[in-house]
Amino acid sequence: CVSKKGWNKASNRAKIDHVAHVFYQLLDNDADGVPDDPAVLKEMVDGGYLLWVPATEDDAEKAGEWPEDVGRDQMTGIFQSVPGSCDSPANRGADPEDRSTWAAAVENTADCGESDATTEEILHLITEAAVSLWPDLWGDSFQSAAGAALAEANGDCGWGDTKDWKNPGSNKCTGRYAYNDKTCKEQCLVVEGIYWASISYIGGLYYKERMDNISNEWLMGTPDVGMPLYPKGKKNAASLQEGSPALYGLVSDTTSEGHAWLPEIMPDGRYKGVPKEPDGCAAESKKSKCKKKTGCGWREKCKLCISFKKKACQKSKGTCKWSKGKCS
Fold first, then answer.
1. In the beta sheet, which residues pair with residue 296?
2. Average pLDDT of the chain?
3. Are 96 and 199 in contact (CB under 8 A)?
4. Other C-beta atoms within 10 Å of 18: how many?
5. Tell me, what's the pLDDT at 276?
6. In the predicted model, is pLDDT for residue 219 greater than 60?
7. Element of type H or E holding 52
8. 142 with 186: CB under 8 angstroms?
9. Which residues have CB under 8 Å from 11's CB, separation 6+?
10. Which of 120, 200, 269, 318 has an alpha carbon 20 to 30 Å from 280's alpha carbon atom?
């Protein structure tokens, strides 16, 4: 949901498009036109999950009350949207699908500017769906598998909300994850930590400037054992694989039940997926055969039902029917 103020300013459109593309890339990470985890998408739709996209911080505070059918909301602002950021290995000159290319690009950040908050905020919203569906795995407490691994990663560094936080990038504690935010309690700490772990695994933090900047909170931005370790000069720094085998195991599995929602490729804001054609509508040249194929209709040639507008759908010959504002 983009705010009116945000939408009405033409110069915002590229950033709004970026947000939409990242959302699609996280839901359909392999870009095959099909959600990676239908259960998560269903939970988000049925549960009224809302992504709120205001123009500015002031605009964000003027949202008012959401309708009753909004179950959860998450903000990612246009002012936080940074297309072409260094977060994506692709923008650092590496191949996001080839981990062997990442190390050479750790300091290749001259052309990709600041970090982008879009992936983080959208992944938080998707994580909430996983929390609801698989509480033993992702539940937002230190009793879940993810929560226990994050508590272990904290070591003796403490938290802001318990007023015992110590900088993990210093020599005052031995942990690798500690958040100095007095408003971020256990639920928040787990969701935040899942983001750090998942994005570390897919290389979204693996560049020098970013890892230096977050060293007071997270020291496992280096994905794998054997990759050059950053940030430099921090005794608690470790690769995710070595520093927390438990977290690495959780987020590196992107196919099993309860894990398929996790990304394997860092979003770059350029979604390339397209809907698949059921039964090859476009390839069918005979009207009689087209009419018998599910999801296909004939209007001069065989086409996907979803490609027809209302009038064409109603006049098409085949299985197409107009219902609830779409042809299917």
1. 304
2. 94
3. no
4. 22
5. 55
6. yes
7. strand 49-52
8. yes
9. none
10. 269
pLDDT recorded at residue 97: 95
Could you tell me if 132 and 86 are in contact, meaning their C-beta atoms sit under 8 angstroms apart?
no
Q: How many structural domains comprise the chain?
A: 2
Distance, CA of 321 to CA of 198 (rounded, Å): 41
Outline where 179-296 has alpha helix (H): 186-201, 208-213, 240-243, 245-252, 287-290
Q: How far apart are CA 123 and CA 138, in angstroms?
A: 13
Same domain, 194 and 295: no
Burial 273-290 (b: 16+ CB within 10 A, else e): beeebebebeebeeeeeb
Domain that holds residue 28: 4-252
Beta bridge partners of 326: 323
Rounded to 5 degrees, what are φ and ψ at 2?
-90, 135
Is the same domain home to 89 and 233?
yes
Residue 266 lies in a domain: no
| pTM to 2 decimal places | 0.84
Please report whether residue 257 resides in a domain: no
- Which DSSP symbol is given to 114? S
Residue with tokens 């103020």: 5
Q: What span, in angstroms and rounded, lies between the C-alpha atoms of 290 and 302? A: 6
Q: What's the gap between Cα 69 and its chain centre?
A: 23
Beta bridge partners of 297: 303, 318
